[in-house]
Design a protein that fits this description.
alpha+beta, eight-stranded antiparallel sheet
Length: about 650
């Protein structure tokens, strides 16, 4: 098995010497570290103890380099809390310990170094101070091993303890997509860009195309190393080096993350649960500017506390929003550290709940807190988390890519969760988007109500225009949702569609006796006129004579015949009865059958129809639009009859 072990402790307490005593590797790799005799950046080593392979991350102990220490704490499975027996617990011992606890590291060993420099009484005092520090923490019952890196005393015992702790660690849950937070970047002659990090989740293989976030740069894995050996594939929990193609190493910085193409996205607003240290000088307050250390990066942010007081007191936990000043990549449950802006000191830590939050207004706090509490409770229940996430999206819902970006779940795991929610009717699939069943039902009801209200207001109208309905209820929703709601209502025969008009399925236009009489008269006018129809205004005025109806009502009644197709619009002025248009079309077809070229000119058309030029030209242009004829110079070509 593979285990990542991180060191923690005050400067000059022997962390680097201890790693060298365990592995034979001097983790101080920089010339500055050799010259000054202190660790200023991350160092790495590896060692196999029996069947356990350990990757060591050695961190700097000086308070000025806590930023680097935090980058190395990412992905640590167990910690070696290093305390020099001759000095005991010191300021950075406390800060590093607080950081480990806030990051959720729950396994470790306490190592008392430099035992060759102290007597038994001093050693006991160091043990007492250590016990007081770790009381009521994950290290309260951790083994305490005294060592001397100079003489080798206790080193074998420490190796045994490390192996025992490592083999007792729970099996890593690997449900998330590939994610490699980068803690180092350099160039190797003949290879190009190389990055290193602890693979947080998923697996990475040679030849794979990946994406470097937050810059969204596509790269290719040219080669992999783990445990100092070239491999084809590396797994979650391993320290790896990746040779990347498609980018210069100067474009890569600590804090970037390698992920699969088109899976995860960067963010700047995060909802989280935050714990303020009991030793913090003051409460964490809304609008406070802080430094957030997440993954291997540091980013400045403003805090928005999601409670009525606007603050989280020392020793307390509560929900808050982090409004970051630059983009980062993070995933649900990822731990982070908060340090004060100036002077820099660790004051709090927390875990991500919603990595793609929206800015909340104060009056929304109660609803937001309820949602975040439910998400926390459901963290180990993937199906419930997906349900809550989609439900929070409201009527817009989410497509698969959006849910994956917010959960970071592997494709097959997320697909199974979505399918389970669909099967239990928690979600509805709406043309590629998932919407909560409750929200979808509300949309169905809203559409029906809107159409019914339209029928009441416009009893003479055939139905509401499809586009008008969309603009009224779905203007700010994805078009897929609108189509899905309409399709659902139509398939259950709750609505009917006629071209671009929608009506309640059971609705029929009802006319008063006077409206019915007008309708009969206007229809009779056009049918009896054949092809020599009056102008529309004249026909309407004549049919209104002797009634109490007004022109607007007449136009609505006339529209009924247009909607039904009984009257055909040729121009804004001339309308014809459908049977007259159909009869003329048949005459054209019969004429075409007697000619070889199927051509007809205006004079011949006038003669055929028995009409003047006033009607002939509009009718020919109408037939052109309907593809019954096609203009060919000063003549028309009559279309071939359709077959089949």
């Amino acid at each position: 098995m593979d285990v990542i072990i991180g060191t923690a402790g005050h400067i000059d307490h022997g962390k680097t010497a201890l790693v060298k005593a365990l592995t034979g590797v001097d983790a101080d790799r920089l010339p500055e570290e050799k010259r000054r005799g202190i660790t200023v950046d991350l160092g790495f080593a590896e060692m196999t103890f029996g069947d356990v392979h350990c990757g060591f991350v050695d961190v700097p102990g000086h308070e000025r380099f806590v930023k680097n220490m935090l980058a190395g704490a990412n992905g640590v499975d167990l910690v070696m809390l290093v305390i020099a027996a001759d000095e005991g617990v010191m300021p950075q011992t406390r800060e590093h310990f607080d950081i480990c606890r806030l990051l959720g590291i729950n396994a470790g060993v306490i190592v008392l170094t430099k035992t060759d420099l102290v007597d038994e009484q001093t050693l006991e005092l160091a043990k007492l101070g250590t016990a007081e520090l770790v009381s009521n923490s994950f290290l309260e019952n951790a083994p305490v091993v005294g060592v001397s890196s100079r003489t080798g005393t206790g080193i074998d015992q420490l190796k045994t303890v490390i192996r025992q702790i490592a083999t007792s660690l729970p099996v890593r849950k690997d449900q998330l997509v590939l994610r490699l937070p980068i803690d180092r970047s350099f160039s190797m002659k003949g290879f190009g860009a190389v990055v290193t990090g602890t693979l947080a989740s998923g697996e990475i293989s040679e030849g794979t195309e990946l994406e470097l976030l937050p810059n969204a740069v596509k790269v290719r894995v040219r080669g992999l190393q783990t445990h100092g050996k070239a491999v084809k594939t590396a797994m979650a929990g391993q320290r790896i080096a990746v040779n990347l193609g498609g980018i210069d190493h100067s474009k890569i910085t600590r804090g970037m993350t390698l992920v699969p193409l088109d899976t995860l996205r960067s963010t700047q607003i995060i909802d989280a649960e935050i714990e303020v240290l009991t030793t913090a000088a003051k409460s964490l307050r809304s609008r406070q500017r802080v430094r957030v250390h997440i993954g291997t990066t540091e980013v400045l942010a403003r805090i928005q506390v999601l409670n009525n007081s606007g603050e989280i007191a020392p020793g307390s936990k509560d929900f808050a929003q982090l409004r970051l000043e630059t983009q980062v990549l993070t995933v649900p449950s990822e731990r982070f550290i908060i340090r004060s802006y100036s002077p820099q000191a660790t004051i709090a830590g927390g875990s991500v709940i919603d990595a793609f939050a929206e800015k909340h207004r104060h009056k929304e706090n109660e609803a937001v807190r309820h949602y975040l509490a439910n998400m926390l409770t459901a963290f180990d229940d993937i199906n419930e988390r997906v349900r809550l996430l989609v439900n929070a999206a409201g009527a817009s819902g989410f497509n698969f890519a959006e849910v994956q970006a917010r959960t970071a779940l592997r494709k097959e795991i997320l697909e199974a969760s979505v399918d389970a929610n669909l099967a239990s009717n928690n979600l509805v699939e709406a043309n590629g988007r998932n919407v909560s069943s409750g929200e979808f039902t509300k949309l169905l009801s809203s559409v029906e109500t809107t159409i019914e209200e339209f029928h009441v207001r416009e009893p003479l109208a055939k139905g509401i225009a499809r586009e008008a309905l969309r603009e009224k209820l779905f203007a700010f929703l994805p078009i897929e949702i609108f189509h899905s709601v309409v399709d659902s209502l139509q398939s259950t025969k709750r609505i009917s569609l006629d071209k671009e008009t929608i009506r309640i399925d059971s609705y029929h236009q009802k006319l008063s006796p006077e409206e019915a009489a007008f309708s009969d008269k206007i229809l009779s006018t056009y049918r009896s006129a054949d092809l020599e129809v009056p102008k529309l205004e004249e026909a309407l005025a004549e049919s209104l004579a002797g009634t109490k109806l007004q022109m607007p009502q007449a136009r609505k009644l006339f529209q009924m015949f247009l909607d039904s197709g009984e009257i055909v619009k040729v121009t804004d002025t001339f309308y014809f009865a459908k049977n007259a248009i159909d009869k003329l079309a048949d005459q054209l077809k019969q004429f075409a059958a007697t000619t070889n070229d199927r051509l007809i000119d205006v004079p011949k058309f006038k003669e055929l129809a028995g009409i003047s030029r006033k009607y002939a030209i509009p009718l020919l242009e109408y037939f052109d639009r309907e593809h019954i004829t096609t203009r060919a110079g000063d003549k028309r070509h009559i279309a071939e009859p359709r077959t089949g």
